[in-house]
Amino acid sequence: MISRRQALTGGACVAAGAAAASLASVGWSRLGARSTPPPTPAPVAPVEPSAFAPLDRLPDPGAPYLKDIASESGRYFGAALRDTLFSDPDFRSLVVRECNMAVCEGAMKFKAIRPNPHVYDFTAADRFLEFTEAHGMAMRGHALVWHGSTWPWFEEQLQGPDKWRVFEDHIRTVAARYRGRIHSWDVVNEPFEAGRYARNGIRRSVFLENLGEDYIRVAFEVAHDADPESLKFLNEFMFSWPQSAPEKVSGALRTLESLLAAGAPVHGFGLQGHLLTQAEVPVDLQRSFLQEVRAMGMKVYVTELDVRDAEAPQDPQTRDRLVADRVRTFLDVVEETGGYEALLTWGLSDRYTWVSEYYPREDGGRARSLPFDEGLGAKPFYNVVRESLTP
Ligand code: G3I
């Protein structure tokens, strides 16, 4: 296992293909000696309770925070973080106050860690991990394999004679870097799809096209070999587009069954919750899917929970109610089918959400997709999460 000191010495390392993979297993000092690390960011100071954001906008001032409620039943509440965490002290206080788990919204993705074919740059990812460790939060890793975060040069490599080596090197190097420090990895993210972009419910990604379906099993094996202590998850959105859900559900169940039959180290299913105000959650399908996943003995985490509200009415109260209703329906089904060990929202406050960036409202207003509003006040979404977490 790499020591904490080794882990903190410089974020960027020169990739040396298979050599990088094998060196990663014995530590980073030799690789580090051959690299030109970027300036190390200033250490992140723990946030003192006195610096917490005011509580007067919580529905029940003095109520325990979400992380305390979650930990009463041995569970986690957390959120995806982006680097605004480090520039916004009030937001940071909210995160520290409410979360006992976190995940990087982008810093551990391929595009962030691999700026070019020759470099592994862990600067940003290290900084988040130091932050979570300083505040006693568990860190989820997101994501080792995702078609949505690759560079053209990597996609070219995946078509070449070394395709398996480059595929495995990335997984092994990143997982080994954080060996023993990541609670759970999203090893493969969003491999399922429906319709013409799918083959038997598996997304026609650069990975499927070049490596075949076996890429999923291999990813889990390599990640587990490099970091045996972390839990390994398959992470997917299933019920955001109800019309495509049945085919995705069958693809996911078939894949999980064959992974488990092959003895692959798959420990859990990350059920993303990118819901929509304009679409009902297909609860019967969600229920039967989760029953089957549970019957396989898998853990279930609710990951990436938020609600897209670009098509909802402008009035904030109406919107907040619609958003909260969707979340309640979705979480009710998860609870009915065995519950969850962790619940993470994709962002924590509407101040920072991908929804406003990807799905801007025509009226110019910000999305109201998350438990806390732009001013860091709790919304009905918060109440639903709080009730759901309460044992
Ligand atoms: O880093 C560049 C920055 O240098 C540049 O100035 C800026 C200009 O737009 O772009 C920055 O990159 C953006 C990156 O987020 C970091 O902020 C990309 O344009 C933007 O496309 C990227 O979006 C992220 C997206 O995944 C793609 O990685 C979203 O923030 C993030 O919320 C979203 O998260 C995904 C999950 O990983 C998987 N599940 C779905 C979820 C929502 O799409």
What does this structure look like?
With 391 residues, the chain is α/β, with parallel strands linked by helices. Helix content is 41%, strand content 17%. It has 17 helices and twelve strands. An eight-stranded parallel β-barrel has the order 2-3-5-6-9-10-11-12, surrounded by six helices. Strands 1-4 form a two-stranded antiparallel sheet. Helix 2 packs parallel to helix 10, helix 13 packs parallel to helix 14 and helix 14 runs parallel beside helix 15. It is globular. The N terminus is likely disordered. The chain binds ligand G3I. The site of ligand G3I has 9 residues, from loops.
How is this fold's topology laid out?
Elements: H1 4-8, E1 12-14, H2 17-24, H3 29-33, H4 66-72, E2 76-81, H5 84-87, H6 89-98, E3 101-104, H7 110-113, E4 119-121, H8 123-134, E5 138-146, H9 152-157, H10 163-177, E6 184-189, E7 198-199, E8 202-203, H11 206-211, H12 214-226, E9 231-237, H13 245-261, E10 268-276, H14 283-295, E11 299-308, H15 316-336, E12 342-345, H16 354-358, H17 380-389
Parallel strand pairs: 2-3, 2-12, 3-5, 5-6, 6-9, 9-10, 10-11, 11-12
Antiparallel strand pairs: 1-4, 7-8
